Amino acid sequence: MSATTTTPKTSSPGSSPAGKTRKPRQAGWWLPYALLGPAILFELVIHVIPMFTGIWMSFLRLTKAFISNWGKAPVTGLQNYTVALDFNSAVGAGLLRSFLITCAFTLLVVGLAWVIGMAAAVALQKEFWGRGFFRTLFLVPYALPMYAGIIAWKFMLQKDTGAVNHFLFDNLGLGGDKPFWLIGDNAFWSIVVVAIWRLWPFAFLMLMAGLQSIPGEVYEASAVDGAKPLRQWSSITLPMLRPVNMVLILVMFLWTFNDFNTPFVLFGTAQPPAGDLISFHIYNASFLTWNFGSGAAMSVLLLIFLLIVSGIYLLVLNRRSRRA
Q1: Nearest to 276 by CA among 24, 93, 48, 70
Q2: Which DSSP category does 7 fall into?
Q3: Which pLDDT tens digit goes with each residue over 17-47?
Q4: Which residues of the chain have a pLDDT value below 70?
């Protein structure tokens, strides 16, 4: 009986232990990283570094006495957060009131902007003469420079010389005194109207683009089966626009909750209590009282809230998508 001999297998220099050869790097492998480099650099400089600087400021008693030398500002730990979350104090009560006003403002603006944008997108889905003109007209508020549009609304909402009161009381003949739209409780509704006017064309643009991906044959087949327009919208349009709506509503929520330009241009630095949105409230808490540590703590709390809401929103929608 002869013994069999086995020779060990030797791996070639270019092969891995598992026997798989490594692919050589292709020419130009570095190009994607080089193209991403400037974007990553600017992201660090513009967003990441200021964010961590703000977090660091929130643990300091950074008042106007230490503006020239931040290093000498005393560390207060969580004191700024404690003051901001003490709703029995003037600072905490003001922040809570601003937060609730911003929640109501965001709910109204995002909801109504989405409804108007959806209605306009569905109305312009089918071809008809003049559709291109109306599409362009509806995008004017979105294409108009932000400050120019809000300043125009500021003039329109004046009491005696504004176009709104002129139309309501002089042209339509409504009785009573002309209201002040930019002060008192009317300020809240003024800022809601202006924010909706600015936001709904964006919703219209995104939904109109989403509708282009829905085949027309689906609607034709449903019409043959007797589906009415409302049933088509609820059974075809909404389900097929779910990916667009997921991103759209989240983006509009973040934009609206962080809205600073609208109240700043409409009201200036002396905003009425009814129009005290939280971003503007934090600005006033920082730059009017010169307490940058307290303002930074409020900003961090706002960031944490938005991250939590966004995470829960995405988690719930992802679970629903998996079930579907």
Answers
A1: 93
A2: P
A3: 555 566 666 767 778 888 888 889 998 988 8
A4: 1-25, 27, 324
Could you give the 3-state DSSP secondary structure of residue 213?
coil
The DSSP secondary structure of 267-313, one letter per residue, reads HTTS--GGG--HHHHHHHHHHTS-BHHHHHHHHHHHHHHHHHHHHHH
Superfamily of domain 31-323: MetI-like (1.10.3720.10)
Question: Helices marked H in 212-277 — which ranges?
Answer: 216-224, 229-232, 238-240, 242-257, 261-267
Domain ranges of the chain: 31-323
Neighbours of 12 (CB within 10 A): 8
pTM of the model: 0.82
Q: Which of 235, 237, 248, 239 is nearest to 204 (CA)?
A: 248
pLDDT in tens, 54-101: 888 888 888 877 777 777 778 888 888 998 898 888 888 989 999 999
Output the CA torsion 55→58→64→66 (10° steps): -80
Task: Please name which of 199, 200, 232 lies closest in space to residue 218, comparing C-alpha atoms.
Answer: 232
Quote the CA–CA distance of 324 and 321 in Å, as a whole number. Answer: 5
